From TrEMBL:
Oxidoreductase is among the record's keywords: no
Recorded superkingdom: Bacteria
Annotated transmembrane regions: 42-59, 65-84, 91-111, 131-151, 158-178, 184-205, 217-242, 268-287
Protein's UniProt name: Membrane-anchored protein
Keywords, ordered alphabetically: Membrane, Transmembrane, Transmembrane helix
Length: 409
């Protein structure tokens, strides 16, 4: 039987991280810079995923280009599903992480009960490949949730956040070299490549800002980052297509090359995985206890654009601007009167309406939208909405709400 998955070599992990990075950056570019919106972007990539997956399943053997194109698309799709839960449905990241962990366990459980193997070196039938891609989709969603939750807990910058998944992957590699179960090692590393690739993308695309708690990156932007990594992926896929260095012709050959190892070493390595989990948990608990500000929202704004009162919304429909002003005014009124619950609820509704209108407003005037969005984020931060900090004083809330109302004319 022909194997449908490439041989796991250094090339496999290099291109996997490249695909994850470009998936994150490209989705952000379409969602934010083109003004398509999060939900619409998810629908687009879901449709594309169905098409490329159908092609991949139809093929009878591993072919580099369609396989890695499917990985790129599934990385974007899984990420968008988690982002919708977080940004649109306001599901806490710890809940998303728990739900996707359970879902992945269910996928693996059913896969094992049916096929008696979870090894990617045995993906030689349609059922096994279907389970494989379902597991990949869930791992990307889980990696997104756990990665974002880690940043929420720690407030680490994009550059610093690269070190945790990188260190964990290195530790897993050492345990695998020692004799850990190769299937378990593979899937643990596979999950971790998602936050690693996404953090690399955020680090490259994020602006160079010196303010505490704000992102510090290389300011390449999501479009440039996407182009760079798409080029690297294309070059790597061309190389693999020519050299066939990642091809395992048959399932039997792959199975023989990855025979079961030493059970004693596997047990020792399993204990090592447990210690690694405990150490990681301790690190996150310690980092969460340190003074920090939550990470800035994912955006491609290089700076807050300052504009004269009313200019930023001049090209927006008056009815939409009026609805936004009404909610901002309601929040301001409640903040002044000491109705903290009402002020927070109005600010939450303001955020939801602003996000819902992004797809229609941003294309009309991207500069104006960016200016209002920057001030809107300052307002939300005072209420602890989309930020890990506790709500600020009513005076600070009034200040930022007044600034927002001034910006909207």
């Amino acid at each position: 039987m022909l194997n449908k998955v490439p041989e796991v070599t250094v090339w496999f992990w290099v291109i996997k991280i490249l695909c994850t990075t470009v998936g994150e950056s490209f989705a952000d570019w379409i969602n934010m810079k083109l003004g398509v919106g999060l939900v619409n972007t998810a629908w687009i990539f879901t449709a594309v995923f169905v098409v490329v997956l159908a092609i991949q399943l139809w093929l009878k053997r591993y072919v580099p280009f369609p396989y890695w194109l499917t990985v790129v698309v599934v990385s974007v799709t899984g990420t968008l599903y988690t982002d919708i839960l977080t940004d649109q449905l306001n599901v806490p990241l710890w809940i998303s992480s728990a739900v996707f962990s359970v879902l992945l366990a269910v996928v693996f459980g059913v896969w094992w009960l049916r096929e008696r193997t979870l090894s990617i070196h045995s993906v030689a039938t349609l059922p096994r490949e279907s389970f494989y891609w379902l597991a990949v989709l869930v791992t990307f969603a889980l990696g997104t949730a756990t990665g974002d939750w880690t940043l929420e807990l720690t407030g680490w910058s994009p550059g610093a956040s690269v070190l945790l998944p990188l260190g964990l992957i290195a530790a897993i590699t050492l345990l695998w070299k020692f004799g850990a179960n190769p299937v378990l090692s593979f899937w643990l590393a596979y999950i971790l490549t998602r936050p690693l690739g996404a953090n690399i993308g955020d680090w490259l695309a994020s602006p160079k800002v010196a303010q505490p708690g704000e992102p510090t990156g290389l300011a390449l932007g999501t479009f440039t980052t996407s182009l760079i990594f798409l080029g690297l992926i294309l070059a790597t896929v061309v190389y693999l297509t020519v050299t066939r260095s990642d091809v395992t012709e048959t399932y039997e050959a792959a199975h023989a090359a990855h025979a079961t190892g030493d059970p004693r070493k596997e047990r020792v390595a399993l204990a090592g995985f447990g210690l690694l989990a405990v150490a990681t948990t301790g690190l996150l608990v310690w980092a969460h206890g340190q003074p920090h500000v939550g990470p800035a929202p994912e955006a491609d704004n290089t700076s807050a654009v300052q504009m004269a009162p009313g200019v930023a919304v001049k090209k927006f429909p008056p009815a939409k601007v009026s609805a936004l002003r009404t909610l901002a005014s309601t929040s301001l009124k409640d903040a002044r009167s000491g109705n903290a619950k009402g002020a927070h609820a109005a600010a939450q509704s303001l955020r939801d309406l602003w996000d819902a209108d992004q797809a229609s407003l941003q294309p009309l005037d991207n500069t104006g939208w960016t200016s209002i969005d920057a001030q809107m984020d300052k307002v939300l931060k005072t209420f602890g909405i989309d930020h890990s900090n506790p709500p600020m004083s009513p005076a600070q809330q009034e200040k930022e709400l007044n600034a927002l109302l001034t910006d909207m004319g």
